[in-house]
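Discussion board: Methods & Data

I've been asked by a reviewer to show the raw model output for two of the constructs in my manuscript, not just the figures. I'm not sure how much to include, so I'm pasting the format here to get opinions. Each protein appears as its amino acid sequence followed by a line of discrete structure tokens. Is this the kind of thing reviewers expect to see in a supplement, or should I convert it first? Here is construct A:
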Amino acid sequence: INYLWSFIFFKFKKRKLALFNIIILILLVISLIISLIKLDILSAILLLPYLIWLLFALVLLVYIIKRNKEQ
């Protein structure tokens, strides 16, 4: 899903589909972190920077979508 985001956003310029894709990716990473807490807490903690990066990318993508609606 992460790999597909670049093609959806940059090549096909489907911003709303890219938004849907990143939301699904965030939900999957959150689910993985929750599952890993039970098995290996260190692995779960090590995924937190990736989750933060995805949330930043989400905010940036929403900003891009809003800015392009005005133009």
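Construct B, same format:
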Amino acid sequence: QIVSKLAQAIQAHPAYRNISRLQVEQLLEQAPVGEVLIRPSGSRGPGHWTLSWKVWATQPRPLIQHFELGE
């Protein structure tokens, strides 16, 4: 399988994690506001990613916005 240059760049990015949405949310709960993580999309398959951004540190849970990205 040929991996695109975009996929290689995303996977090499320091914010990339090969983890689930739940794991991303757990990591971002402890992170400062503005922190971003990128992960593979759980529903859209190869060539798609989700960018998760901690927008606000509300209680009892922070506000985390998820954006779908694709090639």
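Answer (T.O., handling editor elsewhere):
This is acceptable in a supplement if you add a one-line summary per construct. For B, something like: The two ends are 16 Å apart (CA to CA).
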